[in-house]
Write a structure and sequence with these properties.
single chain, alpha/beta, TIM Barrel, 8-stranded parallel barrel, 42% helix, globular, isomerase activity, isomerase, Xyl_isomerase-like_sf, Xylose isomerase-like TIM barrel
Length: 280
Amino acid sequence: MRRLQVYTSLWAMQPHDQTGVKLPLDQVCEMVASAGFDGMAIDLGASDVAVAHSVRPHMEAHGLTPLIVAFPKTVESLEDTLHMAAEFGAPFVDVIGQVMPIALDDMVPVIETWLEMSDRIGMPIQFETHRNCITNDLYVTLQLLDRIPEMRICADLSHYVVDREFWFPLSEQDLELISRVLQRSDSFQGRVASRQQIQLQLDFPQHQKWVDLFKGWWREGIADWRARNVAGDCIFVCELGPPEYAMTDAQGREMSNRWEEAQVIKGWVREIWDDLGGDG
């Protein structure tokens, strides 16, 4: 049985809209569950372990599955996070590795050590495509994937659109590079970027070409995931970050409602899933 599970992010909910109000954790979890999300990512770069333990009972009370996002600054420090994620019942740990050797040959043993740690503890890991981490660069990440067949990706393609400053429309060569990432991706994150901005407003007319590009990538990635998996959960995280990810006006007010946009993305992804055959 295959299922689509759509999460949002605790980071994205603090604050969750233009008011700037940071809601208590119990209210956040009630809102997220009531809106039909299946889980929530706990970002240990934006918060800490204490916050993770504080939000956990509220997530459990509302039937939300936790996903742990780790930012290990040493190779060894990931181990404690993997144990915590297993205790929390997370499906995997999303690794944004802060150990960043310059040379590819020095990166490979870092990734391999984390994979060995994952196997030993019994907690799966995926490596997020993210700036300022070991997968910062698209070209280097593709080389890592070639060198390490077991390496699996959590695809947040917004980072590579900004990092590579892709011209629109993208060339066939650039589209093929992204397809290679998607073919190794076991989960996805939802944010629309342009070559200059990491997070665009979804309904601005000038952004529609980028919205269509990302919706096409999400369809491609989910279709490829379905072709590789006859059972399991396909996890998609709607991750619309607060300022300074979210653009603001001269008064510091956000230019769109991220909470509403997260639900729009959730709807798009569920439509894609159903169009590809739905559960089963």
